[in-house]
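Batch job 17 of 40 flagged for manual review because the log was empty.
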Amino acid sequence: MSSQMIRHTSVSRPAWWILFALILSPVAIAVLVSFLMHGMLFTILYLTPSVDSEVIAEAEKAIQAQQEDKPSDLTVTDIGENPEIAPMMDAKNDAPPPPDVPEVPMQAANVAENLPMNLTPPPGVGAATTAPPAIDLSQTGALSSLSGMGGIFSPGGVGGRTGAAKVQLLQEQGGNPESEAAVAMGLRWLALHQAQDGHWSFREFHKHARTEPFPGGKIFEDTCQNRGNSSEDTGATGLALLPFLGAGITQKVPKEKQAVDYHATVLAGLNYLMKRQNKEGAYADGAYSHAIATIAMCEAFGLTNDPLIKVSSQRALDNIFSRQDPAGGGWRYGAREAGDMSVTGWMLMAIKSGQMAGLRVNALRMKTMEKFIESCQDPKAKGQFFYLPGEPGNVATMTSVGMLCKLYLGVRPVNEIMLAAADYLKKQPPGTNRDIYYLYYATQAMHHMGPAGGSWKFWNEGADGSGRNGIRNFFVSEQYGGPRKPNDKNPHQKGSFFIGTTPGNISDNEGGRLMHTALALLSLEVYYRHLPLYRREMAAGN
């Protein structure tokens, strides 16, 4: 009975049910396999130790601490124009995120020069032979970074030019409101003598006088005197840009409204240099010009991390190494020519500016550069340097150049040669030697010596510590129409410098009033322009 019922039931099932079962069975198998695999996976995850929540918490704390300890925005600009007020830089550190960076070609005419290089240094400047289109940097926005490897905050770096760091360094290193007022006035004079295409001129700056900084104001010819002999504008432009960059003023639009906004001034100057760079990476044929322009470009990159400037700066550095004398390790006027200390000093500063900004340098070539610096030391007088190996020439100035080079190459300030060099410079303090080139290099060298041998205190404040015979008061007292000479009568020269011996005539050097003004301002910015190299000793606990 029962078996009959079963047979009857099986036979009586409809055909559609059998078809449904055949279709369903593969799905059921797949679901079962998936269930088993996920079950094994969850079992493995359950048995695997999880990340300790305390480790996660510590990592989050570290990240937050780094974010809260970011450096000040290095593109905050302007030290003000009121000579009666000590300027204080904005120390905010809320840097904006990097923007998109379009490459927009600047609409400018091809204005290449092809001038011969036959000048006596300094400054000796040349011009590129081609003029590719400039890149308009105004579209890049504001960037703030450690520039590659954080080199701008290392000893010798440019990380102290803005914000709270600048204020602190100004006080610690011996600057004062009077010196900063002089800087502000000097920057305005430079800004009021920039040509409409962005360049500056050693010889014809008076023909590019303007009533307001670029791009505003009317252009006219003023009555400024002491014009230089050089007609090479590339070096003049690089040199004029350096004091703006030295004060932390870049091509970036300031985040907050400034009393005087010079970002367009800097932008126009950088674009002028970039459009003069030829296919070999040279801004100029002349060695001095190319070196000075490269310093300006590398500093602009170090302060802003602008990717457009990075490309140009790196090509310029590569060009410098291509010019180096492969045998002796130095540089002179022609490519691969046996070097002299003067040109080599500018080239070394360009290389170090790029290196601190995180750009690529040739370490092996730098070793040969060290070899050249050593070859220029006087074998009979410790701490003194020659213009050419074995040939004395302007020993005081070349000693200040060689001294700075060795400090940047890592020689300690307490080294006996460095101390002897400092003692030699002390015998020609500010005022007794009025060579602006000497004063510029000696001021940097003594600043980086710091307390070693009492070098910086002597140089900045004078032998008696009163400031009367120190470099700060010397330059402030020499500024035309400045805090200590307010009654000088040529209004167009107000804020400028000429530390020469023939006022009222063509200058006694190639650079004239524009070169003197730029080097004087850089000397007055020494307190914060480069972080002191002697701090390597402090960092090492020495």
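Reviewer: the log was empty due to a logging misconfiguration, but the result itself is present. The chain has one domain: 114-539. Unflagging and moving on to job 18.
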